[in-house]
Amino acid sequence: MSFIQFFGSLLAVTIVALIAARLFPNKSRLTRERVINNTARYCPHINLGSENPTIFISEPGDTAVLIFPNHRDGVAFATALGDRVVIREITDTNQLNISQTEAGLSIDMDDFTQPTFDMRLPQDQRQSLLSELTSYPNKKSEPAHA
Amino acid sequence: MLDLPAPTQLAVPAFTILILAEMIIGWKTGRARYEGKDAMTSMLMGLGSTVAGALTAAFFIGFSYWIWENFRIFDFGTALWVFALAFVLDDLAYYWIHRMGHRMRWMWAAHVIHHSSQHYNLSTALRQTWTGAFTPGFLFKLPIFLLGIEPAIVFFVAGINLIYQFWIHTEAIDKMPRWFEYIFNTPSHHRVHHANNPRYLDANYAGVFMVWDRMFSSFIPEQKEEACRYGLVTDLGTFNPLRIAVHEWVGIFSDIWSAKRWKDRVMFLLAPPGWTPDNSRMTSDMIRNAWLEREAAKNPGKSAENTPAE
């Protein structure tokens, strides 16, 4: 493969991706329903009906945190990735490194493809979420993917 | 050495035109869906895969010819029927490489890239590995060289095989005629292969001829009542091509580093993805069994197993 082929391909990739973005614009935000549906898909062992989780959704609607009041598995983090949603279930919140930023919370995750989870929240919700995350009882480690 | 063209390189302009065509059909009819960043990532992975292939080609060509020149049993020559035979044998080798690519974590580390999109469209076909050269997959092709088919012919038909597999990465085509669905890999069969629904996990490994899956009991038909959901059991949280390309290798090295026994270190390479000594993660078999148990609890007396093959 020559340099001309390489850079020509790179240009073609960019143009095709721009056309895709134009034809299929993604303006959807995370909603309670989207978060619940995707959590049910990722975590079929959690009975979301009986759990009735508390859900914090970030101001831009790109991330959310689910707190399960009864379930042994603690919390789940939802992230909008393009027009799809990625869920991470965390069973040991004590292992999380949570820091406050100017706009919200930043959480370090033990996850190579999602090393940090940033969440923009108003001050009151920030405090509330922080207290939920830090007061959660210690559980076992996060199950990794198959 | 026989001088044959590289079919996949010649097909690149056609790939681009077909992606644009599917995009427009999807935009007009809703039968295909794209996402800008996802499509860009898939195509960048494809470009990276071509570069990685070019960097390692000399080694594989040299090694194949060394095997063929020194250890071949027959010399089949270059007649047209040899190309046809090579195509069938290469497709059989592909079936086993692909099957092991899902059942052995070492090979999954390279192949996982192809399954990492939550979309299923023609751009997904281009989402290919950068690290295939670091897996033992190539060994499955050695019997073809030993039999006596010249490596250049095998590389040529493998390119044709990959071109065939491009068009099956689409939701825009529902089903092909019944006879075609029986013999060949189709969009319907391959949607099942890319699905992460527990019902569909680890099925339909064929490249071109679906008969291999029927023969080796890995065929699952697409069910009208259960739409395919695409991606991994736990999807990746990034569009960064470099992180996508190496994430499973990082996971393997991390697991091997923290393993306490040599047996576990070896198993982290050779066992199916999701294997751990303490069952703290789930393999696809475990996910499927858990799903069957949930379904049995929901519908006592009714099996959720797939209907028999067509």
Based on the model shown, name its key terms.
heterodimer, A: 146 residues, alpha+beta, four-stranded antiparallel beta sheet, three-stranded antiparallel beta sheet, B: 310 residues, mainly alpha, 2 domains, 0% strand
Q: Rg of chain B, please?
A: 20 Å
Total number of beta strands of chain B: 0
Contiguous low-pLDDT stretches of chain B (5 residues minimum) are none
Q: What distance separates the N and C termini of chain B?
A: 43 Å
Please indicate the count of domains of chain B: 2
Q: Number of helical segments of chain A?
A: 4
Query: Level of helix content of chain A?
Result: 25-40%
Given helix and strand content, the structural type of chain A is alpha+beta
List the uncertain runs of chain A: 138-146
Strand order of the largest sheet of chain A: 1-2-3-4
Percent of residues in helices of chain B comes to 55-70%
What portion of residues of chain A belong to β-strands?
A: 25-35%
SSE sequence of chain B, one letter per element: HHHHHHHHHHHHH
Radius of gyration of chain A: 18 Å
Number of strands of chain A: 7
What features would you describe in this structure?
The complex is a heterodimer of chains A (146) and B (310). Chain A has four helices and seven strands, in the order αααβββββββα. Chain A is of the alpha+beta class and 146 residues long. Chain A has a four-stranded antiparallel sheet with strand order 1-2-3-4, sandwiched between helices. The longest helix of chain A has 21 residues, at 3-23. Chain B is mostly helical. Chain B folds into two domains: 7-215, no CATH class; 242-298, no CATH class. In chain B, 57% of the residues lie in helices and 0% in strands. Chain B has 13 helices and no strands. The model of chain B has no long low-confidence stretch (mean pLDDT 95). At the A-B interface, helix 1 and strand 4 of A face helix 1, helix 2, helix 11 and helix 13 of B.
